[in-house]
Amino acid sequence: PERSMVLAEQAKRVAAEFDFSKDAVNKAVQEFRREMDEGLQKEGTELSQIPTYVTAVPNGTEKGLYMAVDLGGTNFRVCSIQLHGNTTFSLTQSKVAIPRELMVAKTSKELFSFLAKQIENFLKEHHEEHYASTLQRRKHGGASPEQEEIFNLGFTFSFPVHQIGINKGMLMRWTKGFDIQDAVGKDVCALLQAEIDELHLPVKVAALVNDTVGTLMARSYTSPGKTGTLLGGIFGTGTNGAYVEKLEKVTKLTKNKDAGEYDHSTGEMIVNTEWGSFDNSLRTLPNTPYDVELDEKSVNPGIQMFEKRVSGMFLGELLRLALVKLVKDPSIPLFKDENSSSNDVHSTTQIQNSSPIWQQWGIDTSFLSVCAGDSSPGLRMLRQTLDKDYDISAVSAEDAEAVRDIAAAIGRRAARLAAVAIAGVIINTGRLSTSSTGTATTESKAGVNPPRGNVEVKEEDVIDIGVDGSLVEFYPNFEEHIRQALREVPEIGDHGEKRVRIGIAKDGSGVGAALIALVAGKVA
Ligand code: ADP
């Protein structure tokens, strides 16, 4: 009994280090709002607030057949999307792994001609009519036959680019193991288009797409109601958000003589916040010893400080650092005692030398979901996972509870930090002040959740938010924790929180890219 009391106390103490109080949330929201405004005015700020040249979100009535490609870290995806115009779509897709040698090729041509070849294969397999037109083009030496249909394509390119037009952006640097020097500083859309043209494919690279903007667009197309989605957020390996801003507030674009062309008629522009780097200078972010250690041992100390407290790539590591510290402290009994947890046979907890717990990044964030979701007696799931995935066997129920409490505190803090970003956007865009009066209730379409507890929220009062990523999708009650924190922000409160509708945007990169290609086609 004494052992379990000491352990429980220590676990509570560590969990409490991850508390992120109402007061702290509110201070961070103020800082987020300040950085949002600053980023709209000048370059080189903590929130980059990148203008995307996309000036409208869809409302679900858009129609047509579009293509999208996605060059992520490891795979190249090609898809075609038929937008039915009634908030639904059908999607055909193929995926190939990018050969390692192309990631570090001598010339960008090697990589981009490979990508164009995949587009050709896709047309051949799934779009006979377009492929036939390819052959026609080849026969006529590239001249386009009459009445030919050109596929508009959205290009999702998940590397840092300096965008200067809806289908124009210069690669700033490679990340994720890519390294092809001659591509740096070049327009990646032009590089792809050149290879497409060489194969005479009837495809036009119409839009350069950031995945967060894709999420926002996809959600806006599929969400119920006509108000349009305000914000798209990603909570996966990393975290980032894009939202609809008033064009007049994006002064670093509107006052820039060298800015590319864009459509002024909507008075809006989608801005990519790059909020992973919110508050890099730690004015308001929490900073436990575990956060400090994680950052020091990361490849980019001092950078992406918000992301390091919020996203899937890092939460497992925070838990690992906390657990290792407890295990290494002889005065704390975690994983140290003899216990009688398994089948009443006394056994001793064993941590194998091979346990991933001893390795940097050894705990995956999905383990936090296991911890938060285990409601079985004695936390059986959690203990099984420790045994199977982490080579820690015969863990007692008390030990499991200690792990659970710390993991839950890390997950909860991440969700409350996510709420800071969401609250900042909701407040700064002024969406809360546009409210109608009346008592009609929200109409909900099949398969879509109405706002929680929404008895009286009118559809036009809904503040719609699209999210994507394994963390928000699978971490138990992530949304509930976000909502709790939103209610603690006085500018939002219970009333504002009820107006917020959060929905998963599935297939964001494909559908979103198609929708941006559509918008781009209208402008051109
Ligand atoms: P990406 O962001 O790379 O497109 P995901 O949205 O799937 O891909 O996010 C992957 C991240 O989510 C990884 O960091 C992983 O640790 C984490 N993750 C995977 N499964 C879960 C889960 N069940 N609960 C919480 N996090 C998870």
Secondary-structure map with pairings?
Layout: H1 2-17, H2 22-41, E1 50-51, E2 63-71, E3 75-84, E4 89-97, H3 100-103, H4 108-126, H5 128-139, E5 151-157, E6 161-165, E7 168-171, H6 188-198, E8 203-209, H7 211-222, E9 231-235, E10 239-246, H8 251-254, E11 268-272, H9 289-296, H10 307-310, H11 312-328, E12 338-339, E13 347-348, E14 350-351, H12 366-373, H13 380-390, E15 392-393, H14 397-428, E16 463-468, H15 470-474, H16 478-487, H17 493-499, E17 500-504, H18 508-523
Parallel strand pairs: 2-5, 5-8, 9-16, 16-17
Antiparallel strand pairs: 1-11, 2-3, 3-4, 6-7, 9-10, 10-11, 12-13, 14-15
Helix pairs in contact: 1-14, 2-14, 4-5, 4-6, 7-18, 9-11, 11-14, 12-14, 14-16
Adenosine-5'-diphosphate binds at residues 236-237, 312-313, 364-366, 369, 469-471, 474-475.
What would you say this structure looks like, in words?
The chain is an alpha/beta fold. Among the domains are: 53-209, ATPase, nucleotide binding domain (Nucleotidyltransferase, domain 5, 2-Layer Sandwich), CATH 3.30.420.40; 282-412, 3-Layer(aba) Sandwich (Hexokinase, domain 1), CATH 3.40.367. The chain is built from 18 helices and 17 strands. The chain has a six-stranded mixed beta sheet with strand order 1-11-10-9-16-17, with helices on both faces. A five-stranded mixed beta sheet has the order 4-3-2-5-8. It has a two-stranded antiparallel sheet with strand order 6-7. Residues 236-237, 312-313, 364-366, 369, 469-471, 474-475 line the site of adenosine-5'-diphosphate.
Number of helical elements: 18
Please indicate the percent range of residues in DSSP E strands (runs of 2 or more): 15-25%
Q: Any idea of the CATH class of the domain at 53-209?
A: Alpha Beta
Q: Spatial order of the strands in the main sheet?
A: 1-11-10-9-16-17
Q: Helix coverage percent of residues?
A: 40-55%
The name CATH uses for the topology of the domain at 53-209 is Nucleotidyltransferase, domain 5
User: Tell me, what's the shape?
Assistant: globular
Question: Which structural category fits the helices and strands?
Answer: alpha/beta
Distance between the termini: 73 Å
| Bound ligands, named by name, code or SMILES | adenosine-5'-diphosphate
Mean pLDDT over the full residue set: 90
Query: CATH homologous superfamily name of the domain at 53-209?
Result: ATPase, nucleotide binding domain
Family: Belongs to the hexokinase family.
Region (Disordered): 433-453
Pathway: Carbohydrate degradation; glycolysis; D-glyceraldehyde 3-phosphate and glycerone phosphate from D-glucose: step 1/4
Protein name: Phosphotransferase
